[in-house]
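Our platform keeps sequence and structure together, in a single record for each protein. Such a record has a labelled line for the sequence and another for the backbone structure tokens. The tokens are whole numbers drawn from a learned vocabulary of local backbone shapes. The remainder of this section carries one protein's record, kept here as part of the documentation:
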Amino acid sequence: MSERNDEAERVTAAWQQLTEWLRVHAPTSHASILPPATEAEIEEADGHLRHYCGYGFPPELVALWAMAGGVQQLDIDEYDEEGEVATGRFLPHGLLLTPSQSIRPRLAGLDRQGQGLLGRRAVGCPLRQLP
């Protein structure tokens, strides 16, 4: 088995442990986890990323999206529910973007010729011809 598959399996195991803990100790945060992204959603976003930037999603992220398509931001009054913080705060930087949301920063600012609208390329993307 490849190292990438091992990493994807570790992500899967860690996510399952985290979501079980949230289910028991922070049910509102658990409820903020969106259903798995569809294979079509992941493939579409990955295709755009590959086309415009020349690279795709890492298998670990694809494995995570197969279990949770993102996190919905819910308002939680800090005094309402014991153990709750804010939805998503259980994740690094407090969010898990959907596949399509995750590529927006990489593709933002490109015109139809792949040129940056401000004379620069999109962050993290080499210039590619846009359709």
About this structure: The longest helix spans residues 3-25. Confidence is low (pLDDT under 50) at residues 113-123, 127-131. Helices lie at 3-25, 27-31, 39-53, 59-65, 99-107.
